[in-house]
Amino acid sequence: MSQLFTELIPSLPEDIALECLTRLHFSAHRVGSQVCNRWRELLQSKEFYYHRKQAGQTRKMACLVQSLPSPTESTRTKPAGQPSYGVSVFDPVFMSWDRVDPVPKYPDGIPLFCQLASSEGKLVLMGGWDPVSWEPVKDVFMYEFTTGRWTQRKDMPSSRSFFAVGAKDGKVYVAGGHDESKNALKSAWVYDICGDEWSELSPMSEERDECQGVIIGNEFWVVSGYETDGQGEFKSNAEAFDMETSEWRRVEEAWMASQCPRSCVGVGKNGGFMCWAECDSAVRVGACGVSLGDCSLVTGSEYQGAPQAFFLVNGQIGKLLKIEVPSDFSSFVQSGCCVEI
């Protein structure tokens, strides 16, 4: 790392130059990476990310798979009523909203039901259905906030939809879901973001379709789900993968039986799982919660067809505080993750 931190700014001592770049707001990294090769290598490096994090210069934001505003009739390329999705970014400090540029391969909308995960400041988008053919895809894309660009990465080993996902220390864990024939899966894989490589993990004890992934400490939890022959019969148990021992353990009564966990699993005050859809009637339909450290962003609606509402919740389970959202970002949120930039 020391080689990256030399002669960053002419005539300035190394430590002062590094401190200047450490305090540079992440929104300026895109321009900063164009100054010179040394700056670009530094700003994109894992070492610099952790240096900024240790210095308290990173910020947690929510990245959301959100339906896009309906195009006008003159520009519409899809049948009316078929939504397109993009990636929205919410900053809880400035209460600001932005939208990530489209994935080049999917300029009119990202794959339906794709999953987002993030680690070390990188955003990874994977899986889902082709927005035109509705066929399952194995695509993996990474968004680099320092350049504002998407790059296509190594495909998932196989097509899977509605799977659990979680990320930590530069790795993305996936498990469960179903294949292109709608067979529920119990297999699991881990993706190394830096190495752009997939490695197979030991399988879970049982199939879990439409499960939800949660990272707690050094464990990747796969909550609920159902088997191929029990479609819609959501389990009350969960399985946790220990990242150090590479072993699974099964936990009974971890979730409410028959309750779909997709996008609405939260961690309560006692460390157990809770359902965001049950915390307030205002988000009982289509609830989605994203933990942002000291607070959580929770979205949903009161009933089917009702306007989408957006709330901030302080602490693990506090009072829902409604926030105003620009009209371009007030639509349905399918899923999301926290990104620390």
TrEMBL record:
Which superkingdom, per the lineage?
Eukaryota
Q: Would you kindly state one Gene Ontology biological process term found in this protein's UniProt entry?
A: regulation of phenylpropanoid metabolic process
**InterPro entries membership:** F-box-like_dom_sf (IPR036047), F-box_dom (IPR001810), Kelch-typ_b-propeller (IPR015915), Kelch_1 (IPR006652), KMD1-4 (IPR044595)
Question: Pfam families, from UniProt?
Answer: F-box (PF00646), Kelch_KLHDC2_KLHL20_DRC7 (PF24681)
The protein's name in its UniProt record:
Uncharacterized protein
Q: Which organism is it from?
A: Daucus carota subsp. sativus (Carrot)
